[in-house]
Every structure is written in structure tokens, then in C-alpha cells.
Amino acid sequence: MKPTISIIAPVYNEEPVLAELHRRVRQVMEQTSESWELLLINDGSRDQSAAVIAQLHAEDERVRGISFSRNFGFQIAVTAGLDHAQGEAIILTDADLQDPPELYPAMIEKWREGYDVVYGVRDSRKGETWFKKATALAFYRLIRRITDIDIPLDTGDFRLMDRRVVEAIRQMPERNRFLRGMVPWVGYRQTGVSYERAARYDGESKFNSVRRMLPFAIDAITSFSYVPLQLATYMGFVMAALSGLAILAVIYLRLFSTNVELAGQATTLVAVLFLGGVQLISLGIIGEYLGRIYDEVKKRPLYLIDRTWGIEKGATHQRNERSR
Ligand code: UDP
Ligand code: MG
Q1: Which of 2, 17, 46, 231 has its CA 20 to 30 A from that of 189?
Q2: What is the pLDDT confidence band of residue 314, given thresholds at 50, 70 and 90?
Q3: Which ligand is nearest to the CA of 45?
Q4: Does residue 218 form part of some domain?
């Protein structure tokens, strides 16, 4: 029997939180009358997360698991979850209990009312630095300005999705996956329920440095906007207009003015360096898009599975699994 609700949690070095996650999810789901599964995607953890998943699966077969061959990143782990979830509705959550399972019943209720996507909207963010809050705010403002898609403010990846939304997302084969943009792109009926985002139950955040967050932001922008590519065009027009004015000014001064010393070396140097900078930045932006096109063209598999728990053979479309 397929469960009605699949709860998907990506797992990267979350050994200390998994048992508690299972306990809380079970507690909440047993109060609803829905059948459910908890699908844990082990994204190449270096701690004992895999062993904990194996043990949870042995104790409760509603816990199912997939282990990747290495770390493929959050977006890919979620993708594997969507590929293997069996439920009619899928709830996507962090493994660290920042997204409270206690919200599931409200989400499920909205889904039963006929909504296809139910976002968790955060009222407040506990245990997060002001730097993370400020950069997140700036980032979502920017994204709203330069893309067509309407990413709801103050939402993370915590959400419920109907099967048809999941199937739509599974039809998007792109490698640079920005789910927070892909889900609004799908459309259908979307709504939100608000909650208080808790602090992490245990362990440490994996997205707490600029080094981890910047690639995420660039992926988001390049997947949904051409505005950076157009910047070079705009800059080109501005520079052309300015130089047109400068040419007129120089001609005027040459013809009608006798006591003006024209053009110092410094002016020339500054103009050349400035334009050199603009050109390099434009090239870099083109490079960002080009590299992504190259990734798409290579068509490598999105992820490789090392082993699974409770996933039927053949359901993974892969032959790299060992039979042990
Ligand atoms: N995660 C993952 N792969 C990664 C990094 C993170 O699967 O490469 C998982 C992590 O285990 C957690 C979720 O993604 O379940 C969100 O990560 P985290 O809680 O560290 O981020 P934050 O909530 O602080 O933004
Ligand atoms: Mg978290």
C-alpha cells in the first residue's frame, strides 16, 4: 500500500537529529489518520547518519532511505526525494527540526481543501545570525525584481506539494536546480500557512558562510533571469552615449577654445581601465551562463545512489547499486 503523505528530508551530517526527527514526525502523523512515509536522503554524510537511517528503517518500515555515493548538495538530494516518494502529497522539510512537524496537519488540511502547494511561511527566525537574515532579505528582494516568477517572501523549502506539482518538477531536467523558483513556476493553486521557525535541534547549519550561500544565489539568478546578460548591453549603450558627448566636447574645444590643455594621460588611463573592468565583468557574466549551458549539455546523471533502505529494486532506474 502506498502511503498518502511522503515526508522528505535531505540529510547531510545529521546523525544527532534523525531519531528525534522520526519521533516527532511519528507523533504528529499518528494524530492524523493519514498513512505516511519518512524518506531520508543521505547526501554523502561523513558521520554515522547512514547507520542511523538503517536502524530507523529496521525499527519502523515507514522510514525509507537513500544514500548517495557522495555529497551532491541540497537541491539534488531533494530531487532524489521527489523521484522516490510514493505519496499523493509530499512534504519537504529540513532534517534538523527547524521546520516543526506540528505544522503538517495544517498543511494537509489546506491540501485537502484543494491547494496544490502549501508553503510554510516563517513568522520569525530563531537562532539565525543578523547577517543571514539581512542577506536573505536582500536576496529575495533582488530575485523578485529581476525575475518573472513570484517567490513568496519569508518562505524556505518547507512546503507541501501535490503529486501533480511533483510530477511537473520531475519533468524539469535542469542540473542547476533552484526549487524555490521551480515550484512557483509550476503554478496551480498555491497558498501558505505561517509558523515560527525553530532553532536547529542539534548540529550545525551547512549554509552559514558566504562561500556556501553565494553559489546558491548565483544559481537562483541564472536559472530564472537574463537580466545579468542584458547588463552588458545597457552598459554598452551608456558608454557609447557618454563617448559620443565626449567627442563633441573635444571637437568644440579644439575648434573654438585656445587656452584649454586637452586630455591628460591620467584621463586616458582611467577611461581605459574602467572599460577594461566593465568588459571583464561582462565576460564573467557570460561565462556563468556558458558554464551552466555546458553542464546541461553534458547530461550527466543528477546523482548516484550507493544504497537504499525500503526502496524497491528497479525503482531507482540505476544499475550502480550493490546487491548486498
Ligand atoms: N543538506 C544536504 N546537503 C548539503 C547541505 C545540507 O542535504 O550539502 C541538508 C541538511 O542536512 C538539512 C538541510 O539540507 O537537512 C538544510 O541544511 P541546514 O539546516 O544546514 O541549513 P539552514 O537551515 O541553516 O539553512
Ligand atoms: Mg536548518
Answers
A1: 2
A2: low
A3: 1
A4: no
Q: Is 122 among the domain residues?
A: yes
Nearest-angstrom CA–CA distance, 11 and 43: 6
If asked whether residues 129 and 197 sit together in one domain, one would say: yes
Whether residues 140 and 271 fall in one domain: no
| CB-count exposure of residue 267 (10 Å: 0-12, 13-18, 19+) | exposed
| Cell numbers at 251, concatenated | 571637437
Q: State the residue range of the domain holding 271.
A: 227-298
Q: Are residues 237 and 170 in the same domain?
A: no
| 150 and 173 together in one domain | yes
pLDDT class for 323, splitting at 50, 70, 90? very low
Q: How far is the CA of 15 from the centre of ligand 1 (A)?
A: 12
DSSP for 202-246, please give it.
Answer: SS--SS-SHHHHHHHHHHHHHHH--HHHHHHHHHHHHHHHHHHHH
Measured CA angle at 152 (ends 135, 91), to 5 deg = 105
CA atoms within 13 A on the CB side of 55: 9
- Give residues (CB < 6 A) around ligand 1: 9-12, 14, 43, 71, 73-74, 77, 94-96, 98, 205-207
- Residues 90, 11 within the same domain: yes
For the chain, strand residue ranges (E) read 5-11, 36-42, 63-68, 89-92, 117-125, 155-162, 190-197, 305-309
Nearest ligand, CA of residue 204? Answer: 1
Looking up cell 512557483 gives 184
Domain count, the chain: 2
**pLDDT tier for residue 324 given thresholds of 50, 70 and 90:** very low
CB contact at 8 A, 98 and 137: no
253 is a domain residue: yes
Residue 222 lies in a domain: no
Ligand 1 atom with least separation from CA of 205: 20
- Kindly give, in sequence order, each residue whose CB lies less than 8 Å from that of residue 182, ignoring residues fewer than 6 positions away: 169, 172
Beta bridge partners of 11: 42
**11 — pLDDT class (breaks 50, 70, 90):** very high
